[in-house]
Amino acid sequence: MSLGTSPGDSNTVNWTDVGNVSTYTFTNLNLIETVTYYASVQAQDMAGNMSDIYTGDGITIDQSGPEPGQVNDGSSQDIDWVNIDYSVDANWTVFTDTLSGVVEYWISIGLTPGQPNFMPWISNGLDTTFTAAQELSEGPTYYINIYAIDSVGNTSAIISSDGFGVDLDSPLAGTVFD
């Protein structure tokens, strides 16, 4: 059995006799991010005849989380104020992960950026928009928090919106002097 950076190669782990086993785990490896590694196996019978070399389709090392996009309060462009106290809308640009790809977004709402202290973290699937019925109050600033997970479980940094407030009061009419 060997491990290399191209099919059939042994430039990472030299050919090793692993005995009569159907599974094997390579240990103490120093693998490099973004590099694809291929495990190869070759059998030998009792007479010393060697089989062809068989190589897997490879694994690519991905130890980095997705790169964050940008999050907006509101259903389209970023807003700073809402005049309702029963619903929250948010949207964000796609996070990028060139190795294994984004598989899920998580969202929370906080009274401080990055903290889920108003609404706990919930999965939003791959949707980049969010609407939830939430009872809001005038006074606090609410922050939308987002992070993404890639297909091997790496997480992005948490990004937060610039926040929005609730204003339920109509403007007061002024007086015009001629």
In short:
The protein has 178 residues and is mostly beta strands. It is built from no helices and 13 strands. It has strands at 2-4, 36-41, 54-55, 59-60, 71-73, 81-82, 87-92, 102-110, 119-123, 129-133, 143-150, 159-160, 165-166.
Provide the CATH architecture of the largest domain: Sandwich
Order of helix and strand elements from N to C terminus: EEEEEEEEEEEEE
Protein structure class: mainly beta
Count of discrete alpha- or pi-helical segments spanning 4 or more residues: 0
Sequence stretches where pLDDT stays below 50 over 5 or more residues: none
Supply the CATH class of the largest domain: Mainly Beta
Helix content: under 10%
CATH topology of the largest domain: Immunoglobulin-like
General form: rod-shaped
Topology, number of strands? 13
Q: How many structural domains can be distinguished in the coordinates? A: 2
Structure explained in plain terms:
The chain is an all-beta fold and 178 residues long. The protein folds into 2 domains: 1-61, no CATH class; 71-165, Immunoglobulins (Immunoglobulin-like, Sandwich), CATH 2.60.40. Helix content is 0%, strand content 31%. It has no helices and 13 strands. It has strands at residues 2-4, 36-41, 54-55, 59-60, 71-73, 81-82, 87-92, 102-110, 119-123, 129-133, 143-150, 159-160, 165-166. Strands 1, 2, 3 and 4 form a 4-stranded antiparallel sheet that branches.
